[in-house]
Amino acid sequence: MSQTHARITASVYTSHVPAIGAALDLGKTGTEYWAPLFKGYELSKQWLRDHTPDVIFLVYNDHATAFSLDFIPTFAIGCAEQYQPADEGWGARPVPPVIGHPELAAHIAQSVIQQDFDLTIVNKMDVDHGLTVPLSLMCGQPQAWPCPVIPFAVNVVQYPVPSGRRCFQLGQAIRRAIESFDRPLNVQIWGTGGMSHQLQGPRAGLINSEFDNAFLDRLIADPAGQAAVPHIDYVREAGSEGIELVMWLIARGAMADAAGGPAPRVAHRFYHVPASNTAVGHLILEEQS
Ligand code: DHB
Ligand code: FE
After folding, report:
1. How far is the CA of 41 from the centre of ligand 1 (A)?
2. What does the buried/exposed string (b/e) look like for 126-156 if buried means 16 or more CB atoms within 10 Å of the residue's CB?
3. Measured between alpha carbons, how far is 259 from 175 in angstroms, rounded to an integer?
4. Structure confidence at residue 245 (pLDDT)
Protein backbone atom coordinates (compact mmCIF):
# COMPACT_ATOMS: atom_id res chain seq x y z
CA MET A 1 0.00 0.00 0.00
CA SER A 2 1.41 3.38 -0.86
CA GLN A 3 2.13 5.87 1.89
CA THR A 4 -0.62 8.46 2.37
CA HIS A 5 0.55 10.26 5.52
CA ALA A 6 3.78 11.60 6.93
CA ARG A 7 5.88 9.27 9.06
CA ILE A 8 8.97 9.33 11.23
CA THR A 9 11.81 7.29 9.79
CA ALA A 10 14.67 7.94 12.21
CA SER A 11 15.94 10.08 15.05
CA VAL A 12 19.36 11.67 15.31
CA TYR A 13 21.02 12.99 18.49
CA THR A 14 24.06 15.20 18.69
CA SER A 15 25.84 17.83 20.73
CA HIS A 16 26.00 21.36 19.25
CA VAL A 17 29.26 22.86 20.62
CA PRO A 18 29.83 26.25 18.92
CA ALA A 19 33.61 25.66 18.59
CA ILE A 20 32.77 22.77 16.23
CA GLY A 21 31.11 25.26 13.91
CA ALA A 22 34.14 27.54 14.14
CA ALA A 23 36.51 24.62 13.39
CA LEU A 24 34.53 23.84 10.24
CA ASP A 25 34.16 27.44 9.13
CA LEU A 26 37.89 28.16 9.66
CA GLY A 27 39.09 24.98 7.92
CA LYS A 28 40.51 23.32 11.04
CA THR A 29 38.74 19.95 10.90
CA GLY A 30 41.97 18.08 10.09
CA THR A 31 43.98 19.29 13.09
CA GLU A 32 45.15 16.91 15.79
CA TYR A 33 42.55 18.33 18.18
CA TRP A 34 39.55 18.19 15.83
CA ALA A 35 40.18 15.23 13.49
CA PRO A 36 39.00 12.50 15.93
CA LEU A 37 35.75 14.40 16.53
CA PHE A 38 34.93 14.84 12.84
CA LYS A 39 35.89 11.21 12.14
CA GLY A 40 33.01 10.16 14.38
CA TYR A 41 30.58 11.89 12.01
CA GLU A 42 31.91 10.43 8.72
CA LEU A 43 29.52 7.49 8.91
CA SER A 44 26.71 9.89 9.84
CA LYS A 45 27.21 12.09 6.79
CA GLN A 46 27.10 9.03 4.52
CA TRP A 47 24.06 7.74 6.39
CA LEU A 48 22.24 11.05 5.87
CA ARG A 49 23.12 11.03 2.15
CA ASP A 50 21.66 7.51 1.96
CA HIS A 51 18.61 8.37 4.10
CA THR A 52 17.83 11.98 3.19
CA PRO A 53 14.38 12.73 4.60
CA ASP A 54 11.79 15.13 3.16
CA VAL A 55 11.84 17.20 6.35
CA ILE A 56 13.95 17.39 9.53
CA PHE A 57 12.13 18.35 12.73
CA LEU A 58 15.07 19.77 14.68
CA VAL A 59 14.77 20.14 18.46
CA TYR A 60 17.39 22.54 19.80
CA ASN A 61 17.85 25.42 22.18
CA ASP A 62 18.32 29.06 21.43
CA HIS A 63 21.10 30.64 23.57
CA ALA A 64 19.53 34.06 24.27
CA THR A 65 20.07 34.82 20.56
CA ALA A 66 16.62 34.96 18.92
CA PHE A 67 14.86 35.10 22.28
CA SER A 68 16.56 37.55 24.59
CA LEU A 69 15.93 37.34 28.30
CA ASP A 70 13.02 39.74 27.59
CA PHE A 71 10.79 36.83 26.65
CA ILE A 72 11.44 33.13 27.04
CA PRO A 73 9.10 30.58 25.46
CA THR A 74 9.40 27.08 26.96
CA PHE A 75 8.56 25.42 23.62
CA ALA A 76 8.57 27.33 20.31
CA ILE A 77 7.85 25.98 16.83
CA GLY A 78 9.21 27.68 13.73
CA CYS A 79 6.49 28.15 11.11
CA ALA A 80 8.45 30.48 8.79
CA GLU A 81 9.46 29.95 5.15
CA GLN A 82 13.12 30.61 5.96
CA TYR A 83 15.56 31.32 8.81
CA GLN A 84 18.90 33.10 8.62
CA PRO A 85 21.98 31.96 10.60
CA ALA A 86 22.30 34.29 13.60
CA ASP A 87 25.10 36.71 14.36
CA GLU A 88 26.21 35.51 17.81
CA GLY A 89 28.87 38.18 18.20
CA TRP A 90 31.40 37.18 15.51
CA GLY A 91 29.20 37.64 12.44
CA ALA A 92 26.79 35.03 11.09
CA ARG A 93 28.26 31.60 10.31
CA PRO A 94 28.93 31.16 6.58
CA VAL A 95 26.29 28.44 6.21
CA PRO A 96 23.18 28.29 4.01
CA PRO A 97 19.85 29.74 5.13
CA VAL A 98 17.51 27.18 6.66
CA ILE A 99 14.44 26.54 4.52
CA GLY A 100 11.37 25.81 6.64
CA HIS A 101 8.24 23.76 6.01
CA PRO A 102 5.38 26.08 6.98
CA GLU A 103 2.59 23.64 6.03
CA LEU A 104 3.86 20.76 8.17
CA ALA A 105 4.91 23.11 10.97
CA ALA A 106 1.45 24.71 11.10
CA HIS A 107 -0.15 21.26 11.16
CA ILE A 108 2.10 20.14 14.01
CA ALA A 109 1.36 23.35 15.93
CA GLN A 110 -2.39 22.79 15.50
CA SER A 111 -2.21 19.13 16.51
CA VAL A 112 0.20 19.48 19.43
CA ILE A 113 -1.60 22.50 20.91
CA GLN A 114 -4.87 20.57 20.65
CA GLN A 115 -3.08 17.76 22.54
CA ASP A 116 -2.69 20.31 25.36
CA PHE A 117 0.95 21.39 24.94
CA ASP A 118 1.36 25.16 24.91
CA LEU A 119 3.63 26.00 21.98
CA THR A 120 4.78 29.47 20.99
CA ILE A 121 4.37 30.11 17.26
CA VAL A 122 7.43 31.71 15.69
CA ASN A 123 7.06 33.35 12.28
CA LYS A 124 10.42 35.12 12.17
CA MET A 125 13.72 34.32 13.90
CA ASP A 126 17.41 33.75 13.31
CA VAL A 127 18.87 30.37 14.26
CA ASP A 128 22.02 30.07 16.36
CA HIS A 129 24.72 27.38 16.81
CA GLY A 130 22.21 25.17 18.61
CA LEU A 131 20.60 24.47 15.24
CA THR A 132 23.34 25.14 12.69
CA VAL A 133 26.14 23.09 14.30
CA PRO A 134 24.12 19.83 14.25
CA LEU A 135 23.30 20.49 10.56
CA SER A 136 27.00 21.09 9.84
CA LEU A 137 28.05 17.92 11.66
CA MET A 138 25.55 15.79 9.75
CA CYS A 139 25.81 17.50 6.34
CA GLY A 140 29.32 18.96 6.13
CA GLN A 141 29.56 22.18 4.12
CA PRO A 142 26.97 21.99 1.32
CA GLN A 143 25.73 24.92 -0.80
CA ALA A 144 22.24 24.25 0.55
CA TRP A 145 20.96 22.03 3.38
CA PRO A 146 19.59 18.77 1.96
CA CYS A 147 15.94 19.33 2.93
CA PRO A 148 13.56 21.71 4.73
CA VAL A 149 13.96 21.98 8.51
CA ILE A 150 11.37 22.81 11.18
CA PRO A 151 13.16 24.47 14.11
CA PHE A 152 11.72 23.58 17.51
CA ALA A 153 13.28 25.62 20.32
CA VAL A 154 13.21 24.51 23.97
CA ASN A 155 14.12 26.72 26.90
CA VAL A 156 16.98 25.06 28.77
CA VAL A 157 18.83 28.33 29.42
CA GLN A 158 16.71 30.19 31.96
CA TYR A 159 15.11 28.38 34.91
CA PRO A 160 12.55 26.92 35.24
CA VAL A 161 13.16 24.42 32.42
CA PRO A 162 10.76 21.67 31.31
CA SER A 163 11.18 18.21 32.84
CA GLY A 164 12.45 15.19 30.95
CA ARG A 165 9.05 13.60 31.44
CA ARG A 166 7.26 16.50 29.77
CA CYS A 167 9.78 16.47 26.92
CA PHE A 168 9.20 12.74 26.37
CA GLN A 169 5.41 13.20 26.37
CA LEU A 170 5.78 16.11 23.96
CA GLY A 171 7.72 13.82 21.62
CA GLN A 172 4.84 11.34 21.75
CA ALA A 173 2.43 14.15 20.81
CA ILE A 174 4.72 15.28 17.96
CA ARG A 175 4.69 11.75 16.57
CA ARG A 176 0.87 11.73 16.54
CA ALA A 177 0.90 15.13 14.86
CA ILE A 178 3.32 14.07 12.12
CA GLU A 179 1.45 10.82 11.46
CA SER A 180 -1.81 12.75 10.96
CA PHE A 181 -0.38 15.01 8.20
CA ASP A 182 -1.94 13.84 4.94
CA ARG A 183 1.11 14.01 2.71
CA PRO A 184 3.55 11.10 2.25
CA LEU A 185 6.58 12.79 3.81
CA ASN A 186 9.48 11.00 5.46
CA VAL A 187 10.43 12.97 8.55
CA GLN A 188 13.47 12.70 10.82
CA ILE A 189 13.40 14.12 14.31
CA TRP A 190 16.67 15.37 15.78
CA GLY A 191 17.39 15.99 19.46
CA THR A 192 20.43 18.18 20.08
CA GLY A 193 22.54 19.79 22.82
CA GLY A 194 24.55 18.27 25.68
CA MET A 195 26.28 16.11 26.71
CA SER A 196 27.75 16.91 30.11
CA HIS A 197 29.19 20.41 30.38
CA GLN A 198 29.20 23.43 32.64
CA LEU A 199 30.32 26.79 31.31
CA GLN A 200 30.40 28.91 34.44
CA GLY A 201 30.97 28.97 38.19
CA PRO A 202 33.32 26.90 40.35
CA ARG A 203 32.51 23.70 38.43
CA ALA A 204 33.21 25.20 34.96
CA GLY A 205 34.75 22.54 32.74
CA LEU A 206 32.89 19.66 34.39
CA ILE A 207 32.54 16.55 32.21
CA ASN A 208 31.04 13.27 33.45
CA SER A 209 31.63 10.43 30.96
CA GLU A 210 30.05 7.85 33.24
CA PHE A 211 26.80 9.81 33.38
CA ASP A 212 26.86 10.46 29.62
CA ASN A 213 27.34 6.83 28.66
CA ALA A 214 24.68 5.66 31.10
CA PHE A 215 22.36 8.27 29.55
CA LEU A 216 23.08 6.92 26.05
CA ASP A 217 22.47 3.32 27.20
CA ARG A 218 19.20 4.23 28.82
CA LEU A 219 18.03 6.54 26.05
CA ILE A 220 18.34 3.57 23.70
CA ALA A 221 16.92 0.81 25.91
CA ASP A 222 14.70 2.46 28.55
CA PRO A 223 13.70 5.95 27.38
CA ALA A 224 10.59 6.11 29.58
CA GLY A 225 12.79 5.32 32.59
CA GLN A 226 15.26 8.03 31.60
CA ALA A 227 12.36 10.45 31.17
CA ALA A 228 11.52 10.01 34.87
CA VAL A 229 14.91 11.39 35.95
CA PRO A 230 14.38 14.85 37.53
CA HIS A 231 16.16 17.89 36.12
CA ILE A 232 18.23 18.39 39.27
CA ASP A 233 20.03 15.09 38.58
CA TYR A 234 21.21 16.41 35.20
CA VAL A 235 22.45 19.63 36.76
CA ARG A 236 24.19 17.81 39.61
CA GLU A 237 25.74 15.02 37.52
CA ALA A 238 26.13 16.52 34.04
CA GLY A 239 26.67 20.19 34.89
CA SER A 240 24.43 23.23 34.51
CA GLU A 241 24.44 23.01 30.69
CA GLY A 242 24.09 19.21 30.80
CA ILE A 243 20.37 19.95 31.20
CA GLU A 244 20.35 20.43 27.40
CA LEU A 245 20.05 16.63 27.28
CA VAL A 246 16.34 16.75 28.12
CA MET A 247 15.84 17.83 24.50
CA TRP A 248 17.00 14.39 23.37
CA LEU A 249 13.94 12.96 25.12
CA ILE A 250 11.63 14.86 22.76
CA ALA A 251 13.14 13.09 19.77
CA ARG A 252 13.19 9.76 21.61
CA GLY A 253 9.52 10.10 22.64
CA ALA A 254 8.61 10.44 18.97
CA MET A 255 9.92 6.97 18.08
CA ALA A 256 7.60 4.01 17.48
CA ASP A 257 8.38 2.10 20.67
CA ALA A 258 7.12 5.02 22.76
CA ALA A 259 3.76 4.45 21.02
CA GLY A 260 3.74 0.66 21.56
CA GLY A 261 5.65 -0.22 18.36
CA PRO A 262 8.98 -1.93 17.75
CA ALA A 263 12.25 -0.69 19.27
CA PRO A 264 14.53 1.29 16.94
CA ARG A 265 17.82 0.00 15.51
CA VAL A 266 21.04 1.69 16.61
CA ALA A 267 22.66 2.73 13.32
CA HIS A 268 25.50 4.67 14.94
CA ARG A 269 26.82 5.61 18.37
CA PHE A 270 29.75 7.91 19.08
CA TYR A 271 31.20 9.61 22.15
CA HIS A 272 34.16 11.95 22.32
CA VAL A 273 35.76 14.06 25.04
CA PRO A 274 36.38 16.94 24.95
CA ALA A 275 35.26 19.46 22.36
CA SER A 276 35.78 22.90 23.83
CA ASN A 277 34.26 22.54 27.32
CA THR A 278 31.84 19.82 26.34
CA ALA A 279 31.46 16.07 26.05
CA VAL A 280 30.16 15.20 22.59
CA GLY A 281 27.61 12.43 22.16
CA HIS A 282 25.91 11.22 19.02
CA LEU A 283 23.33 8.55 18.16
CA ILE A 284 21.35 7.56 15.10
CA LEU A 285 18.24 5.45 15.70
CA GLU A 286 16.32 4.01 12.75
CA GLU A 287 12.70 2.97 12.92
CA GLN A 288 12.12 -0.75 12.28
CA SER A 289 9.10 -1.64 10.19
C1 DHB B 1 29.91 25.51 24.74
C2 DHB B 1 28.94 24.53 24.72
C3 DHB B 1 27.59 24.85 24.50
O4 DHB B 1 26.57 23.96 24.49
C5 DHB B 1 27.25 26.16 24.25
O6 DHB B 1 25.96 26.42 23.95
C7 DHB B 1 28.21 27.17 24.29
C8 DHB B 1 29.55 26.82 24.53
C9 DHB B 1 31.35 25.17 24.97
O10 DHB B 1 31.69 24.00 25.16
O11 DHB B 1 32.18 26.06 24.91
FE1 FE C 1 24.43 24.96 24.26
Report:
1. 19
2. bbbbbbbbbbbbbbeeeeebebbbbbbbbbb
3. 9
4. 98
List, as one string, the DSSP characters of 141-184: S-SS-SS-EEEEEE--SSSS---HHHHHHHHHHHHHHHHTSSS-
CA gap 167, 143 in Å, rounded:
33
Atom index in ligand 1 nearest the CA of residue 193 equals 4
Residues of the chain above pLDDT 90, percent: 98
Structural contact between residues 264 and 11, judged by C-beta atoms closer than 8 angstroms? yes
Beta pairing class for 75-78 and 149-154:
antiparallel
**Atom from ligand 1 closest to the CA of residue 130:** 6
Q: Catalytic positions, please?
A: 129, 197
Residues β-bridged to residue 121: 77
**Ligand 1 atom 10: the closest Cα is on which residue?**
277
Reported as a single tens digit per residue, the pLDDT across 192-209 is 999 999 999 999 999 999
| Domains of the chain with CATH codes | 7-286 (3.40.830.10)
3 alpha carbon – ligand 2 mean position (Å): 37
Q: Indicate the SS3 state at residue 285.
A: strand
DSSP-assigned states of every residue in 18-34? HHHHHHHHTT-TTSTTT
Q: Say what the pTM is.
A: 0.98
pLDDT of residue 236: 97
Report in angstroms the alpha-carbon separations of 203 from 15, 196, 208: 20, 12, 12
Distance 194 CA to ligand 1 centre (A): 9
